Amino acid sequence: MSPAERVSRRTVIAAAACVPALSGCDRALSWLSDSLGGGLPKAFEAPALDVVDETQHLLARTSFGVWPGDWERAKRMGKQAYLDEQLEPSAIDDAACDVRAGAIDVVHLGEGLFELPSDQIEIQLARHALLRACYSKRQLQEVMVELWSDHFHIAIGKSLCQKLLPLHDRDVIRQHALGNFRELLSATATSPAMLVYLDGRDNKQENDSVRPNENYARELLELHTMGVRGGYTQADVMEAARCLTGFVVREEWAPGLVEFVPERHDSGEKRVLGETIRSGGGRSDLDRLLDILAAHPRTAEHVSRKIAATFVDDDPPETLVAAAAATFTASRGDIRAVLRTVLESEAFDQHKRSKIKRPFRFVVSALRALGADTHAKGALLSWLGRMGHAPYGWPTPDGYPARGEAWLATLLQRFRFAFELTSGAIEDTRVDLAHLAEAVCHDNRLAGLVAHSLGRLPQGSERELFSENAAQTLASTLSSPAFQRY
């Protein structure tokens, strides 16, 4: 039994009873999380260079920000050992994060989700995403969870999506985030949340007069596999829609259960992208369609470009995209293999600080930089809402804008957030600046904290941010142009 499995709800309740000095369940959870290795270190080194080094760059791209002590540890490990560790997340002890994130009800429920108010599910699911991104030691997995959540985006505001998204996040996105793309594609295609969101459950062809619903088929080709310039035709979309007929999502009994109803399926012959799918295949038509799409060169290019843009640059070099696509094809969609090609490339090392943080990454990276203690109950989610980046809130299937410049209008809100965070004005979120200052190993502790936050020593005008007030200095650092980039 792993440490994570040993942290049961009974353990949490017992911890609360055994720590009378702590007031409330959240303080008990914080204490238990810290005792399992999730708290601030007693001492940690800050970068002592004028430029961002390879280790800082690696951490910035493969995580949501550098937690105190991460830079020192990753530097000691070396790039290959660090990547090996992050690419096998199940081997990483994440018990400290599990204490915080596991206390959220919706991540454990199945059919019971249909008994909860939709707004409560939405809040809890957003809290879970934020806490995992902030506290998980499986940081590369969390970055990939965000990537795939946008790639296979489902807006929480539609119909039953609120009730079904927790299962989609747990059993589809998280389970396959570092696995095989073909398996991930299949899991999303039969996800009840996806079938509801893109009207797949209404896709039927019981007779010649009923035209199949093409909504999901179009997004499957345009967004999920080949890309908008993938070269498919409207006829390919319609033939794909025929392959996808017959799936329903139960609501009355066993709510959320996906079933294939042969009577609703178009059993005739189909032809997609030049490939023939013979008649009479029934449910296997879906598998044949996904085989064709997952193996298509345009899918390899589209998915590889998305991964390269996430980890290297919003406009990744074409040579890198081609190399990643070749790996995708040769490995039959092994996501880990594609990641290695991207993260071990020269292009990766050549694009330091070229990306602008989206609001979710900015908020989480600020929390991680300061080693914040939070349970994300309301105030943090409100800040994400004000910046337009609440999890699952984007209304259309294309997911939140990936390019950093799309979020420049949020800079004023980021400035305000930074000052409220460092001054302790955000409800349910605490930062211990005195502990940080005492723990950082640097001749000038305030300069050391700035160097830890920026990944390098402060330069030029950045030194003018210093004041006798550590909270103001760090607020200015977190809202500075340098902190907005990674």
Question: Describe it for me?
Answer:
There is one protein chain. By secondary structure, the protein is mainly alpha-helical. It has two domains: 1-166 and 354-486, no CATH class; 197-282, no CATH class. It has 26 helices and eight strands. The strands form four sheets. Strands 1-8 form a two-stranded parallel ribbon. Strands 2-3 form a two-stranded antiparallel ribbon. The chain has a two-stranded antiparallel ribbon with strand order 4-5. A hairpin with an 8-residue loop joins strand 2 (247-249) and strand 3 (258-260). Helix 10 packs antiparallel against helix 11. The longest helix has 18 residues, at 118-135.
Alpha-carbon Rg, integer? 24 Å
For the termini, the CA-CA separation is 37 Å
Oligomer: single chain
Q: Give me the number of helical elements.
A: 26
Mean pLDDT: 93
Secondary structure category: mainly alpha
Taken together, the total number of domains comes to 2
Tell the overall outline: globular
Residues in helix, %: 40-55%
Portion in beta strands: under 5%
Main features:
486 residues; mainly alpha; two-stranded parallel sheet; 8 strands
Précis, in short:
With 486 residues, the chain is mainly alpha-helical.
Architecture blueprint of SSEs:
Blueprint: H1 3-6, H2 9-18, H3 25-38, E1 44-45, H4 54-62, H5 70-77, H6 79-86, H7 95-101, H8 118-135, H9 139-151, H10 161-176, H11 181-189, H12 192-197, H13 215-224, H14 234-243, E2 247-249, E3 258-260, E4 270-272, E5 275-277, H15 284-294, H16 297-311, H17 318-330, H18 335-343, H19 346-349, H20 359-369, E6 373-374, H21 379-386, H22 411-422, E7 429-430, H23 433-439, E8 440-441, H24 445-454, H25 470-478, H26 481-484
Parallel strand pairs: 1-8
Antiparallel strand pairs: 2-3, 4-5, 6-7
